[in-house]
Design a protein that fits this description.
With about 160 residues, this protein is an all-alpha fold. The chain has 5 helices and no strands. The radius of gyration is 17 Å and the shape is elongated. The structure holds fe (ii) ion (FE2).
Length: about 160
């Protein structure tokens, strides 16, 4: 197995998070359906953007000579950790608000990873990776803002004195 640099490993991690974001988005979409249809549309867009992010990351990983397999292994390992978090956090009692709260954690984590990748990339001199980070970071910022706003919107519809 090829050993990865910190930069390559971080690329693997954001790739895995983009994979996991698609599953999480689809799962929360099912919770929001019928409860918050405008949020459902937002989730659909987020899932599409996560798929595009995964695609771009995988394409870029192919450019790392002899490292693609190891980067994708790292991605799958990250994805499976994130999937475990998803299934631990959301169970059969979960509602749309629970779903958006989970996504708030997940998107904050994703955004944080991209910011770290940006920091590493600035010193690595890889123009292609720099381009990917510049494309992905604002999208991740928007995702985080959208799910935290979504949580607050759903919370505003709750009756605080009702039993949980
Ligand atoms: Fe995201």
């Amino acid at each position: 197995m090829a050993e990865l640099t910190k930069l390559e490993a971080k690329l693997g991690e954001v790739t895995g998070l983009a994979m996991a974001a698609q599953d999480a988005g689809k799962k929360v979409k099912r919770l929001a359906e019928g409860e918050a249809d405008d949020l459902v549309q937002q989730l659909e867009q987020m899932v599409r953007e996560a798929a595009e992010t995964e695609e771009r990351c995988v394409e870029l990983a192919s450019g790392f000579e002899g490292k693609k397999t190891a980067i994708l292994d790292e991605a799958r390992a990250t994805k499976s950790k994130a999937s475990e978090m998803l299934s631990t956090y959301l169970d059969s009692d979960s509602d749309a608000l629970d779903g958006f709260e989970f996504l708030t954690m997940a998107e904050a984590g994703e955004l944080g990873h991209w910011a770290v990748l940006q920091e590493l990339t600035q010193r690595a001199g890889n123009a292609e990776l720099q381009g990917l980070v510049e494309w992905a970071l604002p999208i991740q910022q928007r995702h985080f803002a959208a799910v935290s706003d979504g949580s607050l919107k759903l919370a505003a519809e709750e009756d605080p004195s009702e039993p949980a």
